């Protein structure tokens, strides 16, 4: 069985934290499709050249399409919404949806799995043999 490809969605301000989780998944042999945490930008403006908000958004959608599972990190606050768009896009394209943190809106109730923490995800992952096949 093929290992699932994973997209990690979170508020941009958490990119360093999420990059650490990406490395944990990579050490387990999983492919993480999220490139947003490596892009040198803020969510408001690009830094010139081909680095524009539109290019970053299109990259994100391509990365979600390449994934089998979207893991969305929530924090219980209502703030900027890019990760919610990614979640909706994954929902519309029939991806498996996981939430890490509290439910923030009604569409989060459509998630396949809800975890209280990253540690709970990793604990679960170690028990899923498809992730290590």
What would you note in describing this structure?
- With 133 residues, the protein is of the alpha/beta class.
- It has a single domain, classed as 3-Layer(aba) Sandwich (Rossmann fold).
- Helices cover 35% and strands 15% of the residues.
- Strands 2-1-3-4-5 form a 5-stranded parallel sheet, with helices on both faces.
- About 5% of the residues have low confidence.
Give a short synopsis of this structure:
With 133 residues, the protein is α/β, with parallel strands linked by helices. It has helices at 15-27, 53-66, 82-92, 118-125, and strands at residues 5-9, 31-32, 69-73, 96-100, 113-115.
Labels describing this entry:
133 residues; alpha/beta; Rossmann fold; 5-stranded parallel β-sheet; 5 strands; 35% helix; 15% strand; globular
Give the oligomer, counting copies of the same chain as homo and different chains as hetero: single chain
**How many strand units?**
5
| Largest β-sheet summary | 5 strands, parallel
Per CATH, which architecture?
Answer: 3-Layer(aba) Sandwich
Low-confidence stretches: 43-49
Helical fraction equals: 25-40%
Total count of domains = 1
Structural class: alpha/beta
CATH class: Alpha Beta
Distance between the termini: 6 Å
SS strand fraction? 15-25%
Kindly identify the CATH topology.
Rossmann fold
The DSSP helix count reads 4
Shape: globular
SSE sequence, one letter per element: EHEHEHEEH
């Amino acid at each position: 069985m093929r290992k699932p490809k994973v997209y990690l969605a979170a508020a941009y301000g958490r990119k360093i934290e999420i990059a650490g989780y990406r490395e944990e998944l990579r050490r387990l042999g999983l492919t993480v499709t999220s490139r947003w945490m490596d892009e040198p930008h803020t969510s408001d403006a690009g830094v010139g050249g081909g680095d524009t908000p539109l290019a970053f958004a299109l990259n994100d959608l391509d990365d979600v399409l390449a994934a089998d599972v979207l893991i969305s990190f929530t924090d219980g606050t209502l703030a900027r919404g890019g990760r919610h768009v990614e979640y909706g896009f994954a929902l519309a394209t029939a991806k498996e949806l996981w939430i890490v943190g509290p439910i923030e809106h009604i569409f989060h109730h459509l998630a396949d799995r809800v975890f209280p923490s990253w540690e709970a995800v990793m604990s679960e992952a170690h028990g899923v043999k498809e992730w290590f096949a």
